[in-house]
Protein backbone atom coordinates (compact mmCIF):
# COMPACT_ATOMS: atom_id res chain seq x y z
CA UNK A 1 0.00 0.00 0.00
CA UNK A 2 1.19 3.49 -0.80
CA UNK A 3 0.18 6.19 1.66
CA UNK A 4 -0.79 9.20 -0.44
CA UNK A 5 -1.62 11.61 2.36
CA UNK A 6 -2.36 11.75 6.08
CA UNK A 7 -4.22 14.38 8.09
CA UNK A 8 -4.91 14.78 11.80
CA UNK A 9 -8.65 14.46 12.40
CA UNK A 10 -10.68 14.33 15.65
CA UNK A 11 -7.77 12.91 17.63
CA UNK A 12 -7.05 10.26 15.00
CA UNK A 13 -5.81 10.35 11.42
CA UNK A 14 -7.45 10.52 8.02
CA UNK A 15 -5.45 8.62 5.40
CA UNK A 16 -5.67 8.10 1.65
CA UNK A 17 -4.05 5.03 0.09
CA UNK A 18 -3.31 3.59 -3.35
CA UNK A 19 -2.43 -0.03 -4.08
CA UNK A 20 -2.20 -2.46 -6.95
CA UNK A 21 -5.41 -4.49 -6.80
CA UNK A 22 -5.24 -8.16 -7.69
CA UNK A 23 -9.02 -8.40 -7.98
CA UNK A 24 -9.34 -5.41 -10.31
CA UNK A 25 -6.00 -5.72 -12.09
CA UNK A 26 -5.41 -1.97 -11.81
CA UNK A 27 -4.34 0.51 -9.14
CA UNK A 28 -7.16 1.32 -6.73
CA UNK A 29 -7.56 4.02 -4.11
CA UNK A 30 -9.31 3.93 -0.77
CA UNK A 31 -9.56 6.15 2.29
CA UNK A 32 -9.36 5.25 5.97
CA UNK A 33 -10.14 7.13 9.15
CA UNK A 34 -8.25 5.69 12.13
CA UNK A 35 -9.59 6.80 15.52
CA UNK A 36 -7.19 7.46 18.36
CA UNK A 37 -7.81 3.98 19.76
CA UNK A 38 -6.46 2.43 16.53
CA UNK A 39 -3.11 4.20 16.90
CA UNK A 40 -2.16 2.28 20.04
CA UNK A 41 0.39 -0.44 19.15
CA UNK A 42 -1.28 -3.85 18.98
CA UNK A 43 -4.80 -2.41 19.04
CA UNK A 44 -7.71 -3.87 17.09
CA UNK A 45 -10.82 -1.75 16.53
CA UNK A 46 -14.18 -2.32 14.84
CA UNK A 47 -14.37 -1.10 11.25
CA UNK A 48 -17.16 0.26 9.12
CA UNK A 49 -17.04 0.11 5.31
CA UNK A 50 -18.83 2.90 3.46
CA UNK A 51 -19.83 2.43 -0.19
CA UNK A 52 -20.44 5.66 -2.09
CA UNK A 53 -22.91 6.34 -4.87
CA UNK A 54 -22.76 7.05 -8.59
CA UNK A 55 -20.00 9.44 -9.75
CA UNK A 56 -18.31 9.48 -6.32
CA UNK A 57 -14.77 8.52 -5.32
CA UNK A 58 -12.97 7.35 -2.19
CA UNK A 59 -12.81 10.99 -1.08
CA UNK A 60 -16.49 11.93 -1.23
CA UNK A 61 -17.70 10.45 2.03
CA UNK A 62 -14.67 11.45 4.07
CA UNK A 63 -14.91 15.07 2.88
CA UNK A 64 -18.69 15.58 2.93
CA UNK A 65 -20.34 13.35 5.53
CA UNK A 66 -18.78 14.59 8.78
CA UNK A 67 -18.60 11.01 10.00
CA UNK A 68 -15.12 11.11 11.57
CA UNK A 69 -16.31 13.04 14.62
CA UNK A 70 -18.80 10.34 15.56
CA UNK A 71 -16.54 7.44 14.55
CA UNK A 72 -13.87 8.89 16.85
CA UNK A 73 -16.31 9.00 19.75
CA UNK A 74 -17.08 5.29 19.29
CA UNK A 75 -13.58 4.12 18.37
CA UNK A 76 -14.66 3.01 14.89
CA UNK A 77 -12.39 2.81 11.85
CA UNK A 78 -13.99 4.07 8.62
CA UNK A 79 -13.03 2.58 5.23
CA UNK A 80 -14.23 3.98 1.89
CA UNK A 81 -13.20 2.42 -1.45
CA UNK A 82 -13.50 4.06 -4.85
CA UNK A 83 -16.70 3.31 -6.76
CA UNK A 84 -15.17 1.57 -9.80
CA UNK A 85 -11.95 0.77 -11.62
CA UNK A 86 -10.33 3.72 -13.37
CA UNK A 87 -7.97 3.80 -16.32
CA UNK A 88 -8.95 0.41 -17.71
CA UNK A 89 -9.17 1.75 -21.24
CA UNK A 90 -12.45 -0.04 -21.96
CA UNK A 91 -14.17 1.62 -24.94
CA UNK A 92 -17.05 3.77 -23.70
CA UNK A 93 -16.14 3.37 -20.03
CA UNK A 94 -16.63 7.08 -19.30
CA UNK A 95 -19.46 7.84 -21.74
CA UNK A 96 -22.24 7.74 -19.10
CA UNK A 97 -22.39 8.90 -15.50
CA UNK A 98 -24.51 5.91 -14.44
CA UNK A 99 -22.49 3.09 -16.03
CA UNK A 100 -18.78 2.34 -16.28
CA UNK A 101 -16.36 4.68 -14.49
CA UNK A 102 -17.77 5.76 -11.13
CA UNK A 103 -20.59 3.22 -11.41
CA UNK A 104 -19.26 -0.22 -10.50
CA UNK A 105 -22.44 -1.29 -8.64
CA UNK A 106 -20.34 -3.42 -6.27
CA UNK A 107 -20.68 -6.61 -8.28
CA UNK A 108 -18.37 -8.80 -10.38
CA UNK A 109 -19.22 -8.33 -14.05
CA UNK A 110 -19.61 -11.45 -16.17
CA UNK A 111 -19.97 -9.75 -19.57
CA UNK A 112 -17.21 -8.60 -21.91
CA UNK A 113 -15.53 -6.14 -21.88
CA UNK A 114 -16.32 -5.39 -18.23
CA UNK A 115 -15.54 -8.74 -16.65
CA UNK A 116 -11.76 -8.28 -16.69
CA UNK A 117 -11.65 -5.25 -14.38
CA UNK A 118 -15.16 -4.53 -13.06
CA UNK A 119 -14.94 -6.91 -10.09
CA UNK A 120 -16.02 -4.65 -7.27
CA UNK A 121 -17.63 -7.33 -5.10
CA UNK A 122 -14.41 -9.34 -4.99
CA UNK A 123 -12.47 -6.15 -4.41
CA UNK A 124 -14.54 -4.91 -1.47
CA UNK A 125 -15.60 -8.13 0.23
CA UNK A 126 -12.38 -10.09 -0.27
CA UNK A 127 -9.34 -8.01 -1.17
CA UNK A 128 -10.00 -4.74 0.66
CA UNK A 129 -11.48 -6.58 3.64
CA UNK A 130 -8.32 -8.66 3.84
CA UNK A 131 -6.09 -5.63 3.42
CA UNK A 132 -7.59 -3.54 6.22
CA UNK A 133 -7.75 -6.50 8.61
CA UNK A 134 -4.13 -7.50 7.99
CA UNK A 135 -2.24 -4.29 7.16
CA UNK A 136 -4.41 -1.99 9.29
CA UNK A 137 -5.77 -2.54 12.82
CA UNK A 138 -9.33 -3.53 11.89
CA UNK A 139 -10.81 -6.41 13.90
CA UNK A 140 -12.05 -8.95 11.29
CA UNK A 141 -14.77 -10.14 13.67
CA UNK A 142 -16.25 -6.64 14.02
CA UNK A 143 -16.82 -5.17 10.57
CA UNK A 144 -20.00 -3.48 9.36
CA UNK A 145 -21.04 -1.96 6.05
CA UNK A 146 -23.22 0.93 4.93
CA UNK A 147 -23.60 3.17 1.92
CA UNK A 148 -25.59 5.70 -0.09
CA UNK A 149 -27.67 5.24 -3.25
CA UNK A 150 -25.69 2.82 -5.46
CA UNK A 151 -23.54 2.26 -2.36
CA UNK A 152 -26.65 1.61 -0.27
CA UNK A 153 -27.52 -1.07 -2.81
CA UNK A 154 -23.99 -2.42 -2.45
CA UNK A 155 -24.14 -2.45 1.33
CA UNK A 156 -27.49 -4.26 1.51
CA UNK A 157 -26.37 -6.81 -1.08
CA UNK A 158 -22.83 -7.48 0.15
CA UNK A 159 -24.05 -7.76 3.73
CA UNK A 160 -26.48 -10.50 2.67
CA UNK A 161 -23.99 -12.25 0.39
CA UNK A 162 -21.17 -12.11 2.98
CA UNK A 163 -22.86 -12.20 6.40
CA UNK A 164 -19.85 -13.75 8.12
CA UNK A 165 -17.74 -10.75 7.16
CA UNK A 166 -20.21 -7.91 7.59
CA UNK A 167 -21.93 -8.09 10.97
CA UNK A 168 -24.05 -4.94 10.72
CA UNK A 169 -25.63 -3.01 7.86
CA UNK A 170 -27.43 0.25 7.12
CA UNK A 171 -28.11 2.48 4.12
CA UNK A 172 -29.00 5.99 3.01
CA UNK A 173 -31.48 6.18 0.12
CA UNK A 174 -30.42 2.81 -1.34
CA UNK A 175 -31.28 1.50 -4.78
CA UNK A 176 -33.26 -1.15 -2.95
CA UNK A 177 -34.70 -3.09 -5.89
CA UNK A 178 -32.29 -2.53 -8.81
CA UNK A 179 -33.95 -5.16 -11.00
CA UNK A 180 -36.99 -2.88 -11.11
CA UNK A 181 -35.45 0.52 -11.88
CA UNK A 182 -33.67 2.16 -14.85
CA UNK A 183 -30.30 2.50 -13.12
CA UNK A 184 -30.27 -1.15 -12.12
CA UNK A 185 -31.63 -2.47 -15.39
CA UNK A 186 -28.92 -0.61 -17.32
CA UNK A 187 -26.12 -1.71 -15.03
CA UNK A 188 -27.25 -5.31 -14.67
CA UNK A 189 -27.75 -5.74 -18.42
CA UNK A 190 -24.31 -4.34 -19.15
CA UNK A 191 -22.42 -6.13 -16.40
CA UNK A 192 -24.41 -9.36 -16.00
CA UNK A 193 -26.28 -9.89 -19.27
CA UNK A 194 -29.97 -10.51 -19.90
CA UNK A 195 -30.53 -13.33 -17.38
CA UNK A 196 -32.75 -11.84 -14.68
CA UNK A 197 -32.12 -14.81 -12.41
CA UNK A 198 -28.52 -13.61 -12.20
CA UNK A 199 -29.77 -10.10 -11.50
CA UNK A 200 -31.69 -11.39 -8.47
CA UNK A 201 -28.40 -12.51 -6.92
CA UNK A 202 -27.43 -8.83 -6.68
CA UNK A 203 -30.80 -7.32 -5.79
CA UNK A 204 -31.23 -6.54 -2.08
CA UNK A 205 -35.00 -7.04 -2.11
CA UNK A 206 -34.82 -10.32 -4.03
CA UNK A 207 -32.06 -11.62 -1.76
CA UNK A 208 -34.04 -10.72 1.35
CA UNK A 209 -37.21 -12.35 -0.02
CA UNK A 210 -35.25 -15.57 -0.44
CA UNK A 211 -33.89 -15.68 3.11
CA UNK A 212 -35.03 -18.58 5.28
CA UNK A 213 -34.38 -16.63 8.49
CA UNK A 214 -33.61 -12.99 9.30
CA UNK A 215 -29.94 -12.50 8.39
CA UNK A 216 -29.51 -9.51 10.72
CA UNK A 217 -31.70 -10.16 13.77
CA UNK A 218 -30.38 -7.06 15.55
CA UNK A 219 -31.85 -4.92 12.81
CA UNK A 220 -31.14 -2.96 9.63
CA UNK A 221 -31.39 0.85 9.49
CA UNK A 222 -32.42 2.68 6.31
CA UNK A 223 -33.03 6.43 5.98
CA UNK A 224 -34.89 7.88 2.99
CA UNK A 225 -35.66 11.50 2.15
CA UNK A 226 -39.18 12.10 0.88
CA UNK A 227 -38.02 15.02 -1.29
CA UNK A 228 -35.47 12.76 -3.00
CA UNK A 229 -35.81 13.33 -6.74
CA UNK A 230 -34.96 9.69 -7.41
CA UNK A 231 -37.43 8.15 -4.97
CA UNK A 232 -40.36 7.63 -7.38
CA UNK A 233 -38.40 5.93 -10.15
CA UNK A 234 -35.09 4.50 -8.88
CA UNK A 235 -35.06 3.57 -5.21
CA UNK A 236 -38.15 1.51 -4.21
CA UNK A 237 -37.55 1.23 -0.44
CA UNK A 238 -41.07 -0.13 -0.04
CA UNK A 239 -40.04 -3.27 -1.96
CA UNK A 240 -37.19 -3.94 0.45
CA UNK A 241 -39.50 -3.15 3.37
CA UNK A 242 -42.02 -5.74 2.18
CA UNK A 243 -39.30 -8.37 1.73
CA UNK A 244 -38.05 -7.76 5.28
CA UNK A 245 -41.55 -8.05 6.67
CA UNK A 246 -42.10 -11.35 4.83
CA UNK A 247 -39.06 -13.02 6.42
CA UNK A 248 -39.26 -11.31 9.81
CA UNK A 249 -36.13 -9.22 9.32
CA UNK A 250 -36.18 -6.27 11.76
CA UNK A 251 -35.96 -3.08 9.70
CA UNK A 252 -36.09 0.54 10.76
CA UNK A 253 -37.03 2.44 7.60
CA UNK A 254 -37.27 6.14 8.38
CA UNK A 255 -38.85 8.52 5.88
CA UNK A 256 -37.97 12.20 6.24
CA UNK A 257 -39.89 15.12 4.78
CA UNK A 258 -37.79 17.92 3.31
CA UNK A 259 -34.68 15.86 2.58
CA UNK A 260 -33.32 15.09 -0.88
CA UNK A 261 -30.70 12.65 -2.20
CA UNK A 262 -27.55 14.58 -1.34
CA UNK A 263 -24.98 14.81 1.42
CA UNK A 264 -26.89 17.42 3.43
CA UNK A 265 -29.30 14.55 4.08
CA UNK A 266 -26.45 12.20 4.98
CA UNK A 267 -24.77 14.66 7.37
CA UNK A 268 -28.08 15.09 9.19
CA UNK A 269 -28.44 11.40 10.05
CA UNK A 270 -24.86 10.10 9.97
CA UNK A 271 -24.58 10.06 13.77
CA UNK A 272 -27.55 7.69 14.00
CA UNK A 273 -25.89 5.29 11.57
CA UNK A 274 -22.58 5.33 13.43
CA UNK A 275 -24.45 4.58 16.66
CA UNK A 276 -26.38 1.78 14.96
CA UNK A 277 -23.17 0.06 13.91
CA UNK A 278 -21.27 0.78 17.12
CA UNK A 279 -24.03 -0.90 19.13
CA UNK A 280 -23.77 -4.06 17.01
CA UNK A 281 -19.99 -4.18 16.58
Topology at a glance:
Elements: E1 2-9, E2 12-20, E3 27-34, E4 45-51, H1 60-64, H2 68-74, E5 77-81, H3 120-134, E6 138-148, H4 150-161, E7 168-172, H5 182-192, H6 196-200, H7 204-209, E8 220-225, H8 231-235, H9 237-247, E9 251-256, H10 263-280
Tell the overall outline: globular
H/E topology pattern: EEEEHHEHEHEHHHEHHEH
Compute the separation of the termini in Å.
26 Å
Instruction: Please summarize the sheet with the most strands.
Output: 9 strands, mixed
Q: Give the helix proportion (percent range).
A: 25-40%
- Tell me the fraction of residues in β-strands, as a range: 15-25%
Q: Can you give the mean pLDDT?
A: 98
Across the major sheet, the strand order is 1-2-3-5-4-6-7-8-9
Oligomeric assembly: single chain
* Count of DSSP-assigned helices: 10
| Structural class by secondary-structure content | alpha/beta
List segments where confidence is low: pLDDT < 50 over at least 5 consecutive residues: none
Q: What is the tally of beta strands? A: 9
Radius of gyration: 17 Å
Name its key features.
281 residues, 10 helices, nine-stranded mixed sheet
Molecular structure report:
The chain is an alpha/beta fold. Helix content is about 35%, strand content about 25%. The protein has a nine-stranded mixed β-sheet, with helices on both faces. The longest helix has 18 residues, at about 265-280. The mean pLDDT is about 100.
